[in-house]
Design brief:
This protein has 2 helices and 6 strands, in the order βββββαβα. It is of the alpha+beta class. The chain has a single domain, classed as Trna Endonuclease, Chain: A, domain 1 (3-Layer(aba) Sandwich). Strands 1-4-5-6 form a 4-stranded mixed sheet, with helices on both faces. It has a two-stranded antiparallel sheet with strand order 2-3. The longest helix has 11 residues.
Length: 83
């Protein structure tokens, strides 16, 4: 799994973009067993998806990938291991 820095930040007077679209999940990787791409959105126990995250989720649901919203390590484990 790889952590994806989403958004932009300021360096002096310049704004630097991370290069990924708004809504891109926080974690990305590949499942070793079958090579499927995995996208995980990490949220606090009460956290909700923003509009851009919902749009990204809908787009990914049409692809042959693993996607899930996780609130703890056990959530991530279950999503990664499901078929």
């Amino acid at each position: 799994m790889f952590r994806i820095n989403v958004g932009s930040f300021k360096v002096g007077n310049r704004v630097i973009s991370t290069g990924v679209p708004k809504g891109f999940p926080d974690l990305f990787g590949f499942r070793r067993s079958d090579g499927k791409a995995i996208f995980l959105e990490v949220k606090t126990p009460k956290g909700r998806l923003r509009k851009e995250q919902k749009t990204f989720k809908e787009a990914l649901s049409k692809q042959n990938v693993v996607y899930g919203v996780v609130r703890n390590l056990e959530d991530a484990r279950k999503i990664i291991l499901r078929t």
